[in-house]
Amino acid sequence: MTKNPLLSLQPEGLYCEAGDFHIDPWRPVKRAVITHAHADHARAGHQLYLAETSCGHFLRGRLGADIHLLPLRYGERLRHRGVTLSLHPAGHIPGSAQVRVEYRGEVWVAGGDYKVGPDPLAAAFEPVRCHTFITECTFGLPIYRWPDPDTVAEEISQWWLECRKNDQKAVLFAYSLGKAQRLLAMLPRDVGPLYAHPATARMNAIARQSGYALPATEPWPTEARKGAAEGLYLVPPAVEDSQWLRQCGAHSKALASGWMTVRGNRRRRALDRGFVISDHADWPGLQQAIAATGAENILATHGQTHVLVRWLREQGYHADNLQTPFGEEDEG
Amino acid sequence: MKQFAALVLTLDQTTSLNRKSDLLARFFAEAPPEDRIWTIALFTGRRPRRQINTRLFREVILAETGIPEWLFAECYAQVGDLAETAALLLPPSSQSSDDTLTRWIKHIQNSGNASEEEKQNFLRHSWAQLDRDQRFVFNKLITGGFRLGISQKIILRALARALEQPADQLAHRLMGDWNPREFRWEDLVQPQATDQDSRPYPFCLAYPLEADPVDDPPGDLREWTCEWKWDGIRAQLIQRRQQTYLWSRGEELVTPQFPELLPPASHLPDGTVLDGEILPWQEKATSPLTFQDLQKRLNRKKPGANTVRNTPVIFMAYDLLEHNGQDIRKKPFCERRKILETLFPKNPRESPLRLSPLVHQKSWSRLAQERSRSRTIGAEGFMLKKNDSPYSVGRKKGLWWKWKVDPLTADAVLVYAQRGHGRRSGQFTDYTFAVWDGDQLVPFAKAYSGLTNKEILEVDRWIKKHTREKFGPVRTVEPQLVFEIGFEGIYPSKRHKSGLAVRFPRILRWRQDKPSREADSLETLHALLAQVCSASVTEPR
Predict the structure, then answer these.
(1) Tens of pLDDT along B463-500?
(2) How far is A100 from chain B (nearest CA, A)?
(3) CATH homologous superfamily of B204-404
(4) How many whole angstroms separate alpha carbon A253 and alpha carbon A272?
């Protein structure tokens, strides 16, 4: 890559000079293309937000109704200063997108966060042919190979049943946007009452407004102290260290995350159960996605970049890493 | 294997000790008897002999998974457990094995004499028959070190429930060097009187004092006995039927390692069991040599004559557990001590078998004063034993206390970090600390513990952001964070660049108030070394 790269890293974030816009910038900019509504990608303070339609709803919910938003449908093309820009499903969470940028015949795709496996809500990852692909690699090690999500859903139901037998609340930690809705759509509804934490319930409401079919949840009990109703409690991971958890009585704690592949991760957080379910690509998923783009140049970001870069180079790619502050290992 | 793998999996899925004990009790009731024995053996650290070495194991894994060695190393660094890394990397399996744990262990043991190629085939063939959880267990059996957060205490609790027998009695039956291949479930349920000669008793342990006894005495001083706490190897000396057995606290038979203790032990009356400490101690010296000296005597089958001459050991007797073949552990400590004293001749300086001297003072504050002398006589502080205390199994609060002197300390800078293992796998928790030598930082101690989980998380994040260089698994970090490091002893060392070595280093606290420039210097440590050494020189011979 001898000439000026189409996308490059600036202090504000990933930048397209030809089109004068940023992708998921972490400092306030004029025009921000947002891949998805997770907090580390969608920050406040930009003058214009460009995002997929349902992603836009989440952005309004999180950043305020008054943001200046330009919604775009998947596949819809936008031309600006000679640059063609379009968004394509990334399969990460509802509304998540890859950003395709074309300029003078050269195509770059910023994959954002993505997964290639099935999801009951998010539109399936769409491989986009390009010259340069920017890939995440949160789980960029071959130890990460996701089990079949249906099997995991079955494991979660078993655990939930066991908790019910032991008169325990089943407290399931899952990110309020994305993971929570995915679980909600996967879990059986005949085991018992299912409660969504207010933060999660807010995201559920937006998802429903955006047209995603989500089963209803019970209203969050205001008195969730000892003796309060048993059931499955879907809560954000931040609740792990909270007054509510300490006072909610007998419970079993579980986390739904790709990090739960490794025993040590579960044990050091003193979790009872860890369910391996992730909205990121696993190792085979990364290989599959990268190959499907047909790209020769791969830029790795978000995770164990040095490992993936070395691996890809050994496979004959031009690979490099792209240092971004995304998802410092707590997402999954 | 199904039952055992399920046990391992479910034990791993709960943090509740009650639930763990439930699961084990059910396993002990339902699993084949020989599998029960192996389970006890594995969980109490009696793993079978290693038949396939790590190098070969790794080679086969690389060949089976087709990944390069560096990538395997990256995975291993993340997982922190070889057996688990291998289980995660192997291609998915649809098979699972119905064979018992015992049969699998037999297979593994039989592979010991096979050729390298046969061993490789054995591994491949085995993995092909096992599902992911079974592979993890199988790999653990191959690579050794079956640590799954199951303490002896939980095992005993579960066994006591399964057998409806007191846990203390079972603890005694499980002591010593029994062989899981010969030991039968019936031996545990109803032990035979024979072949028990070498068997030691479970050690009685002490908790550290929770408060300074001067401010908050554990009771009337007259109800307590005080003796020095020595820093050697806790051991049991058994004399039965003209045979001597010496057991370390790690339940290893170490008799041949300390030949100088055998002649004096043979003069003990038949049916005697002493609890005490093996200490390096030169004849006529008033205090022991350092623990570093004792290390020269460890882990060798039989020491040479020179080693024995230069670093002789003594057995400092603390307690009497068996007298004339009678188990007297239930008698009060003061009575046991009285009988113990009758076993020792008047002139204790001559024999390698000695009686632990008692410390008599009129008040807790005087005792505290006396305790401050600990380092000068080579002790770690005091042991407080309640006069009426039985010799219990394991740790019981309130009967025995350790009252150690405060550790030596230094403020040091974090310079290297490495990912931890087991519960700390994946996180940077193994740290190397350095002190200033002019404007150079010289490493002087490694420490793995002492921080809260929250601090570990914070330091882990900091390390990831402030890495300067990576050498394999080791990261060099910017020299910014200062920690107060505590240690029990300091010795000159030729092997270390700093010229000194410390014993039991650990992190006392994170000095977030201190810039790295204000950390201690090597000079300060050498001054400390000179001070400690001059205090504990032994008498010239």
Answers:
(1) 988 988 887 778 999 999 999 999 988 888 888 889 99
(2) 30
(3) DNA ligase/mRNA capping enzyme (3.30.470.30)
(4) 5
